[in-house]
Amino acid sequence: MRRATIRALAILIFLAFRVATSVDEGTKQSMIQFMDKVSPGSDQGWSLSTDPCADQWKGVECESQSVKRIVLEELNLSGTLDASPLCRVQSLAVLSLKGNNVAGGIPKEIANCKHLTHLYLGGNRFSGQLPDALSRLNNLKRLDVSDNNFSGPLPNLARISGMITFFAQNNNFTGELPQFDFANLEHFNVSDNNFTGQIPDGGGRFQENSFLGNLGLCGSPLPNSCPAPQPAKKKQKDVSLDKIFIYLGYVILGLIVVLFLVYKIARRSKKKEDGFDGGKNRRSDTSSSKANGALSEPKTSENRSEYSITSVESGMTTSSLVVLSDAPALRDLKFEDLLRAPAEQLGRGKHGSLYKVVLSNGLALAVKRIKDLGIPSEDFKGRMRKMDRAKHPHVLPPVAFYCSKQEKLLVYEYKPNGSLFNLLHGMQNAQIFDWGSRLSVAATVAEALAFMHSELREDGIAHGNLKTTNILLDKDMDPCISEYGLMVVKTQDYSQIPEIRSSAASPHDAFKDDVYGLGLILLELLTGKMVQNNGYDLAKWVHSVVREEWTGEVFDGVLISEGADEERMVRLLQVGLQCINPSPAERPSSRQAAALISSIKDEEERSVSSDS
Ligand SMILES: *[C@@H]1O[C@H](CO)[C@@H](O)[C@H](O)[C@H]1NC(C)=O
Ligand SMILES: *[C@@H]1O[C@H](CO)[C@@H](O)[C@H](O)[C@H]1NC(C)=O
Ligand SMILES: *[C@@H]1O[C@H](CO)[C@@H](O)[C@H](O)[C@H]1NC(C)=O
Ligand SMILES: *[C@@H]1O[C@H](CO)[C@@H](O)[C@H](O)[C@H]1NC(C)=O
Ligand SMILES: *[C@@H]1O[C@H](CO)[C@@H](O)[C@H](O)[C@H]1NC(C)=O
What we know:
Elements: H1 2-14, H2 25-38, E1 60-63, E2 66-71, H3 83-86, E3 94-96, E4 103-104, E5 118-120, E6 125-128, E7 142-144, E8 149-152, E9 165-167, E10 172-175, E11 187-189, E12 194-198, E13 216-218, H4 241-278, H5 280-293, E14 322-323, H6 328-331, H7 335-340, E15 343-349, E16 352-358, E17 364-371, H8 377-389, E18 400-403, E19 407-413, H9 420-425, H10 435-456, E20 471-473, E21 479-481, H11 491-494, H12 498-502, H13 510-527, H14 536-547, H15 557-562, H16 566-579, H17 590-611
Parallel strand pairs: 2-3, 3-5, 4-6, 5-7, 6-8, 7-9, 8-10, 9-11, 10-12, 12-13
Antiparallel strand pairs: 1-2, 14-18, 15-16, 16-17, 17-19, 18-19, 20-21
Helix pairs in contact: 1-16, 10-13, 10-17, 13-16, 16-17
Domain Protein kinase: 340-600
Protein name: Probable inactive receptor kinase At2g26730
Subcellular location: Membrane
């Protein structure tokens, strides 16, 4: 059942890419040339008179009549790897030569295998250094060079941002480890080499046995900590006579300087005393320079900590705070109260900053400061009032706002439990965020979004910036969408998503952008991976893994080990992939997405209650 679903999914995705071509002669010749070198004396049945795909050459797998995978494992191949002909097979994504007797080095021509995602060379007799060329294989996800006779330093593999597996154990590598981004790696082993130096930050994510057997390696998770940087060497005891004279010279020079300073200070304090009688000009000078360095309102400045939000520019006090909430604690909230209260910066993004402000009555508020919103103040006020009317329990309403020409401040209730982003990517919490909770968060967010969309569709107000950092968690850990309607999406923002750029001809639909954001949230919940570059990287990665039929590997390891129902996870993945369809017209509406997610959740709940 599971395989069938996955296959259906793969077919679904690849229908669009299906182009009927056959493997051309040049590619066939290249493949045979590669085989000659890697397996001297046996062509393993690869022959020019047949077709690699149609006739299913040994170890060759194709998609749409192009060679995708070459898997030649445990065949006692005893030649060498000739990358030049191999990399002429442009479509090649997977190469495995595991468990053979292949010797020699990895040639630098491997850089031409640009589409390689999986390279397994473990358990051979490869030797020499890994070429720098390897670090230019940007699409590489999994690299296994373990159990060989490689030596020398590693190239800077940290450049490959999407790498999830790196195996290099049992070789003779030396030098320091590159600055791997351990947060992205899922499997890692460099045991039994000759590495030295400090394990890069984040290595503690893996266990000791990923690093053992390297005498020179130190730092977490290994028990031996690295030596502190050497302080400057202690002075030698036998200072020679002329050195003593030099030091004596310094001491005397120092004394002169000190005496001179004392003299200066004494003179100045004398002058000051004089100034109280006649020096009016000088006094006004000092007080004006003080006002420049401090804040716009001298009266309240003594109440402000250096962390208060009043670093916002001075023109702000010209219009006042509009309070939307009728909660008694907030009814009389004044702009000045916000300015005076101690504030702590919680975050800072492209469009503004977020502060936590604690009022004198103890109430905590979140204040969002937005720059360059790009809409006139009047429109902004109108939007705020419309949004205040559309209330949903899982959408955080602004309790007050402030708006001047340059700056907008939005005041929300403060939510103590952080954002969905923190919950997913903060290290400690990953374990307790189980599949049932994630599905429920997905359903709640989708439902709240669908509600807001239907309430505000006529006004044309979409969220504009839906992402996990904007989903806050209340005291019961229920999700709450924040910052609804704050971003007036400019079309050029979206042109950063390559697929959208190409479809920019159709009129821009901000509601479908929100659906895209929802899709990314679903992928983030399922994979546990972070969204970067407008989600394009994550989307691309999910597509590539699904395409390679490594679908199981898409899901967050925590969910797999918890034993979450894989069929329902695949269905949620499908909804996510529909939502991020490059063509906005093909995406479901938020209402349709919410219905799909809710039916998956209902099914999950039925199965859990029938289990118990
Ligand atoms: C593997 O090949 C080598 C020579 O290439 C040969 O000596 C050895 O017997 C072969 N091993 C197996 C298991 O076929
Ligand atoms: C490492 O190199 C030494 C000598 O250079 C050699 O004896 C040993 O077999 C090598 N180890 C591995 C795992 O290849
Ligand atoms: C590994 O390489 C070293 C030289 O770099 C060589 O002396 C040694 O014999 C090789 N070991 C194996 C198992 O091939
Ligand atoms: C590790 O490297 C040091 C020098 O860098 C060398 O003396 C030692 O033999 C190496 N050990 C192994 C097991 O290759
Ligand atoms: C890493 O490789 C070493 C040597 O093969 C092995 O003992 C260890 O268990 C491996 N660690 C992991 C995490 O797989």
